Amino acid sequence: MNIHDIKMVIFDMDGLMLDTERYYYYSVKEMCEKKNIEVDMSVYRAVIGTSGPIDMEKFNKSKYPHNVLEKMICQYVENRRNELCEKGVATKKGLTELLNTLNENKIVKVVGTSTPKPIAKKLLKSVGIEKEFSIIVSATDVKNGKPAPDIFLLACKEAQIPPERSLVLEDSEPGAKAAKAAGIPCIIVPDINYPKKEVAEGAEMIAKSLLDVEKLFAVITTNI
To answer: Domain extents for the chain?
Structure first.
């Protein structure tokens, strides 16, 4: 990947820009512990970054009916999301600096998220960055969510910028796999889950934070 060829950056949202994944994960874990519901949280971690359902057969180790527990968790997470939409959420290290540098270089910024678009807009607005993005594509806009490439391909189509001139920023394996399937270079900034070796090797780099990504684009600014 030549950073000078990049005309658009597609941002994941949860866990990449906003510190929400960790919040949801520990909220669900705490709820189950308080209610003495035995679950396997590694199964929950496996679906982070996707819009897919939890495998309740593997997740639920309690006597609760699967459908009851699943509904309970969905409602609990929705309540936590609503709280974050109202109160705001912490942004990840380096986000502000990266957005500023991309603006200086006139690089298009797009969101590609598994979160439903209305919620994504509210969360981005709660931290004052919704207007930074010209396009928001969510799993509700496509037939197949991550790890399928649909979200990222639609982002390229709407922005009229080809995949090879784009860059995906992701924190999760499903997102990184979606980028690869779309033929778009990807930088992984791990959050809760560190990518497996084969996924990490397929990425352009594994960054410690968005500050590492900002440094790549700062080179363009320096050379202008």
So the answer is: 3-19+90-219, 20-87
pTM over 0.70: yes
Domain 3-19+90-219 in CATH: superfamily?
HAD superfamily/HAD-like (3.40.50.1000)
Q: What is the pLDDT of residues 18-63, one digit of tens each?
A: 999 888 889 899 889 998 999 999 888 888 877 777 889 899 898 8
Say how far apart CA 206 and CA 203 lie, in whole Å: 7
The length of the chain is 224
- How does DSSP assign 44-108, residue by residue? HHHTTTSSPPP-HHHHB-SSS-HHHHHHHHHHHHHHHHHHHHHH--PBPTTHHHHHHHHHHTT-E
Instruction: Give the Å distances, CA to CA, from 75 to 84, 169, 170.
Output: 14, 29, 26
Which secondary structure element, helix H or strand E, spans residue 215, and what is its range?
helix 210-223
